Amino acid sequence: MEWQPEPESLRQLIQLFNSTQSVDNAVQQQNNQRLEELRRVPDFINYLLFVLIVMKDENSTVRAVAGLLLKNNVRQDFTSIPPHVLEYVKRKSIDAIGDPDTLVRHTLGTVIATIVALGKIRSWPEILPRLMQLLDSPDYPVVEGSWDILRKICDECTRELEEPLDDGTLPLNVMLPRFLSFFSSESPTLREYAISTTTLFVRESSECMKPMMDTFVVELFKRANDDNPEVLKAVCKAVVALIETRPDMLMPELENVVNYMIHTSQNSDPDIAMEACEFWLSFCEQEEMVESLKPFLSQVIPTLMRGMVYSEEDLMILDNNDEDAVVPDSEQDIKPRHHRARTHEHHGAAAGGSSNSDGGSIHEDEDDDDDEYDSDDDDDVYSEWNLRKCSAASLDVISTAFGDHILEFVLPVLKEELASDDWRVKEAGILALGAIAEGCMTGMQPHLPSLLPYLIQWFKHEKALVRSIACWSASRYGKWAIYESGPNMLAVYFEPLLAGLLETMMDKNKRVQEAACSAFATLEEEAGPYMVPYIQPVLETLMRAFSLYQRKNLIILYDAVGTLAEAVGSELNQPQFIHMLMPNVIERWEDLPTDDHHMFPLSECLSAIALALGPSFAPYAQVAYERCVQIVGETLQICQQSHLDPTIETPDMDLVIVALDFISAIVQALGDSSQPLIAEHNGVVLQLIGMCM
To answer: Tell me, what's the pLDDT at 338?
Structure first.
């Protein structure tokens, strides 16, 4: 007999699903506990599937909740699901592909794609032929539902689809020609699915795709002026994929392609413009092709500079001139922090005063990709890659590729923007000035004696966003102010820049504080020993900032203090400096709970201070060393317990790394005097280090 739910159990389950919308934490915990209990019921999966595909009169959100739970249960328990239950789910799912409700249809698609991905295509040989057959259905929900599943399978099983099935056929040889035929579908949704899914295989340099590349390019450019924004975005992504993997396909029509991307980079829809803007980033990464862009720079560069102006949507979120320095940060404002090597190229303000903003060259670390212009901003809604950041990153890579050659196109626009009465335009000009710093430093040198004082003057602009971007841009020219402005010119350029940043670090706007402190960290790292004469005023400002900054900006402040120690080294080892610095920093560290977000940056800061102070760190060494050993020992113990008991959460092993770094710094600072510390508790630290190794 066909499986049927028990009515009372079904009613209770629906009631439970309805209560999942509650915002009451106690209700949520109770629901989670009940759902965890239900997972152990043998036919719980059948109940979930029944709610998802049979109960069409039920609220679609409830049905989708059942579907997501079904997907999660399949993912977590796949190997232990009885074969007859899995077969039941497969059979019933295929029959429900064309559900009229889009949310339910797509949730079911996720369930099916999950089963395919976990069990491999061979374990469900009829699914792909069935889906391809359903693409011919006259019923749109069936076609759209089939497409939704196909694109998810392609995303999950890209490589597997290139492998022959048991009968020797390659699935993609059947699928790709059919996908290409949908480029001209009457439905914009299906056109977007087809283009995006086929582009996956272009990116992967699929062998099956190679014979169809000519057709792909022809069909793609038929959609170049599509009236649907999602289709246009898919077209732009496909062109970017081509420039990255098959630039030879674009070379015969390169002029038309470039002109099209210039035009689309100015689309009134910022999301379309951003996707087009990615083209310039990818183009400049193609060393054998980059020179081909040279004839178009006169058009590309002004387009990018216009794209760097804040949009109205940006300003609704970011244009905050409030004196908010006394407002405590919420915990969600503070991103999780992981141990890393200290470098300041990631600090910046160009995307709105964030600690991981438009600052720095995106070539500093290949692993970071576009991270220099991809920020963790104050507002999660704004923490995504956007047209402004993409335009700035593109100008950066173009300046690196072509150097001073681009200045003939940059400077006229820059002059106009910096003189603008519209603060948004002026701000974009300041961002552009910083973006070209690395690539065009030589050509910019004649202009810097007049430009740098202007940048410092803008530290006091009425708009917080202008103040923050001016700090970042000025820091990009810090190296010139220190080393290249001329003999005996530190007092003319470097000192005003340093003084301006120190003053701006005390701004009453948190975003400006963050930008100024990040810029200062970059400057002191560049200056190194040149910072020695200024230790006293710098420490005075840093200590004042400790009492002003909220939790998020304290993280950057710790970094700035640690960088000062690295820059001036043993020159910090003066009684008056130690007295100013150590009570504040070491007390904070001692009072900090081990699981606090600040443990990483503050420990890194103290490690740098220990190395700078050398033997003078001795009064603080005992307490710091013992706590670090305790952190390593306790974290390793919890880690071992979590392997034996899955209910125990695995600890953050970065805690061990940062503690070991601090121990290393203490031993290096004290030299032979560290031997009594190491000998404590029968040299337990050596046992712990052995375990870590």
So the answer is: 53
What radius of gyration do the chain's Cα atoms show?
A: 30
Alpha-carbon distance of 476 to 523, in angstroms, equals 8
Cβ(506)–Cβ(545) below 8 Å: yes
d(CA 489, CA 186): 67
CB neighbours of 81 closer than 8 A, spacing ≥ 6? 45, 74
The kind and range of the H/E element at 642 are helix 618-644
CA 342 – CA 514 distance, rounded (Å): 17
Reported as half-sphere exposure (CB side, CA atoms, 13 A), residue 692 has a value of 21
List pLDDT tens digits, range 604-652: 999 999 999 999 999 999 999 999 999 999 999 999 998 888 788 888 8
Q: How far apart are CA 286 and CA 291, in angstroms?
A: 9
**3-state secondary structure at position 531:** helix
Position 319, amino acid: D
Neighbours of 138 (CB within 10 A): 6
Confidence (pTM): 0.85
Give long-range contacts, CB 8 A cutoff, 24+ apart: 448-456. 448/477, 448/480, 448/481, 448/485, 448/493, 449/485, 449/493, 451/477, 452/477, 452/480, 452/481, 452/493, 452/497, 453/496, 454/418, 455/430, 456/496, 456/497, 456/500
Q: Where are the alpha helices (DSSP H) in 265-379?
A: 270-284, 297-306, 312-318
Could you report the per-residue pLDDT of 398-427, keeping only the tens digit for each?
999 999 999 999 999 999 999 999 999 999
Which backbone phi and psi does 365 adopt, to 5 degrees? -145, 115
